[in-house]
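@channel sequence for tomorrow's demo:
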Amino acid sequence: MAMNAAFGEMVGSGTISAPGPKKHTTQPIVTGSSVLGICYKGGVMLAADTMLSYGRMAKAQNICRLQGISHTNTILGGSGEYSDYQQILKILEEKSLEHYTAQEHEGFDDDEGEGAIAETMTARSIWNYLRVVMYSRRNKFNPYYNSIVVAGTDTDKDGEPFLGMIDLIGTTIKENIIATGFGSYIAIPLLREKWSPDMDEGEARALLEDCMKLLFYRDCKASNRIQIAKVTKANGVLISEPYELESSWTAHSAIPSSTYQEGDGGW
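structure tokens (generated this afternoon):
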């Protein structure tokens, strides 16, 4: 006699199988490393590498962790569990489309037969919405294992650059410089030292590349293959193709000269 074990009914000869406990993710599995963000004069810029790690193993080398949200002037950067980041992107795409179509429908003019331009979700509103999403998941003891960086322009404040971060328990930060993951320890000191509110786009990019290079040297889960993304009021969202930073592992100070070695300088 075989019955449905999922409902704790009899299976086989007189045995009862109870349903198993509901299982939640207890730790991230396939993860991305640091995401860096910086505000500069006229815009905001993000940087992230393209590597995903499975524990300490480099699982994938060309995965984009900087994504734009449709119908908005916003970029999302995610570190932590990549599948959770994909789910967050899916939620935001659905919410953005719902908001955009609702605004477009409400602004339709029946007399002239022309639709008004729909207002899109701002970076600040997406940041606030994600705060609720992350906190709600945390309260269910099944959080999204991510730190999410939100970058964009705030249409409510005449295109002012916006940069914020949300962690896995719903804590939010709004700052001119932001780093997640190992970058919050390694890159933040350099960003604080070199950042200025009137720096231009070229200076901002050079600073982010220096920080990403530093992370490549110091973080075993980082890569020198990176992407840069920027948001400006004039040009909207632009995300670069992946490219590799120049690096050198030569450390002359750690190599003793054979002049000071005894004998022939061999081992």
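heads up for whoever presents: Confidence is low (pLDDT under 50) at residues 5-11, 109-118.
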